[in-house]
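User: Hey, my collaborator sent me this sequence without any context and asked if I could get a structure. I don't really work with proteins. Can you help?
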Amino acid sequence: MEIAQNHSLKTLNTFGIAARAAFFARVETVRQLRQVLTSNIARTRPILVLGGGSNVVFTGTFAGLVIHNLIGGIDIIKEDGQQVLVAAGGGMVWHSLVEFALDKNLGGIENLSLIPGSVGAAPIQNIGAYGAELKDVFAYLEAVDLASGRQRLFTREECAFGYRNSIFKNELKDRFMITKVVLRLAKKPQVNISYGAIGEVLTASGITTPTIREVSEAVIAIRQSKLPDPARIGNAGSFFKNPVLDKIDYEGLKLEFSGIPGFPDNGSVKVPAAWLIEQCGWKGKRLGNVGVHDKQPLVLVNYGGGTGTEIVNLAADIKASVATKFGIELEPEPRII
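Assistant: No problem. I've predicted the 3D structure and written it out in structure-token form, which is a compact way to encode the shape of the chain:
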């Protein structure tokens, strides 16, 4: 396997930041991955696995080895009268897997349509949108230990999924590359249109009993109306997690800010970060080459030529203003490298 040096990462991160990797390798199979891992470079340098680059902010040159996960393939590996197990390579584009499911009328991930990034990154982040999360349909995954090259299977329980969180962001951070993800999808889909504006979009189109394809199209329409296309303007989607507050803390804030929205979340209350950011005057604000999107304040953007440091500094200023006004600490979703 060829390992390149001083490789540009500008086209491999959706912010379009002009970063570089000291060493870089593309892998399309587990065998190729193991070959790379036996190299002296892999044994002596830090390793960063890169998928679609949609959840990362590069602040400079990565001094170690970047491994670009391009392991592909989508297959149905088991089925019965009610469900199917669908396996997808970790390097697949996430929405390609959604399209595969829609084409076969397999329900469970239609609400996760058009989420940027790769299949292998989805469990790390426990991606979620419009009332659905990956953990809801997750069966198991296969991953390779970057130190030993050994393959390991992780069950749903072993992944320790949380809100935009998993064991791969904590105890096992940077220790594995996810090579395959297996989902349990339904042959007789039950659509979920209770969250967000999905029902409104469908009603406006005269659709009362939607198919999963129609739910997907509604989600895509909503996302495209609110979120900028990374191909046109650099961004990583939602930059901050929605903070989850104790009920008592939320009720206290509501006494001071009567308009603060909140949604029940397993005994707590989830507050939209976008609302908090907009209340602090950040929506549409631009600072040089970077700024906050004018339609969705949860999205930070690179207008062109912006650096990772500028994005990080902007995020820090937003966090500080929200903390000062509301006493709430926002947590970034993307990884800062």
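In plain terms: The chain has ten helices and 20 strands. You can pass these tokens on to your collaborator as they are.
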